[in-house]
Amino acid sequence: MPRTEDDLNEFFAVDLDGNLDRPDEECRSLLRQLRAEGLKRVAIATAHPMNGIRVRGLGVFYEVDHLVLENGSVLLERDGQSWREVEAWKERNRATRPNVERLRDELLRRAEIVERRWVDYTSPPMELRTLRLPGVDGPLTFEDGAGAFQLTSKDVNVVAQARGMMGSLMAQLGFRVNEIEDVYTLTYGLGSKGEGVDFVAHLDGRKLRMVAMGDSRNDLDMLSRCDLPCAPGNARPEVKQLVQSRNGIVATAERIEGVKEVLRLLRQAAHSVPGSPP
């Protein structure tokens, strides 16, 4: 059945690593074509830190409007070839930020720091710390961001133990902050990807119709909130199940090829609207 003008997609939010994994000229061209046909806003939504070099560079390459970073805790808007924080998002989370900072400080106070190292995938370089936590049977990497912090391990059992320990700690402190679980990573911060992209969708005072694309557990909230969920062929089974249950699009191709497959389908759908550009 032909789509109506009210059904046109106005906002496209996409995860990074398992989706937009590299610069791709055809993908950029498809996004430009969709913009000419009614797409008003594009965002990258990822766990990458606010000062991540790669995500900022890809955001400029793909000419996106917003970066939803640290699993939704930080929102940036494009300023020419650079980026600036969305002040309205910072103001929204002003009361929550002290809870995140207190939780981080309590975690570090109880942890044994066994290694420190600096990484160059942010500018300026960021310090990573390897921690051992009480009641957790293995080390975790601690990454401190602008609005969130992450605990990562290659052992899912260690991640599960850390989640239990963090739940007990938050209960002792008497508050909760946003917790986002991926397979090997826990994020504690000011928001979620779903909250972040939903905020961007409302920036002009009305809700833009949103298409979102992701492949991991930390994308589930975003894919639950959007109007049309999508996933590449390499998405985790639970992600594909959610997308299919909401009558979304699961691409046959993987990673960037899957993104391009979805963008082509969106163009075809737009062209099926009576009176739309040929």
What CATH first level of the largest domain would be assigned?
A: Alpha Beta
Q: Which of globular, elongated, flat, extended, rod-shaped describes the shape?
A: globular
Task: Count up the helices.
Answer: 9
CATH superfamily of the largest domain: HAD superfamily/HAD-like
- How far apart are the termini? 18 Å
Task: Indicate how many domains the architecture comprises.
Answer: 2
Total strands? 14
Give the helix/strand class: alpha/beta
Could you tell me the CATH topology label of the largest domain. Answer: Rossmann fold
Q: Rg, please?
A: 19 Å
Order of helices and strands: EHEHEEEHHEEEEHEEHEHEHEH
How much of the sequence lies in strands comes to 15-25%
Largest sheet: 8 strands, mixed
What does this structure look like?
This protein is α/β, with parallel strands linked by helices. It has two domains: 5-92 and 192-271, 3-Layer(aba) Sandwich (Rossmann fold), CATH 3.40.50; 97-189, no CATH class. The protein is built from nine helices and 14 strands. The chain has helices at 25-36, 53-61, 87-92, 97-110, 156-173, 193-201, 220-225, 237-245, 255-271; strands at 11-14, 41-45, 66-69, 74-79, 82-85, 112-119, 126-132, 140-144, 148-152, 178-181, 185-189, 210-213, 228-231, 249-250. An eight-stranded mixed beta sheet has the order 5-4-3-2-1-12-13-14, with helices on both faces. Strands 6-7-8-9-11-10 form a six-stranded antiparallel beta sheet, with helices on one face. Helix 1 links the parallel strand 1 and strand 2. Residues 1-6 have low confidence and may be disordered.
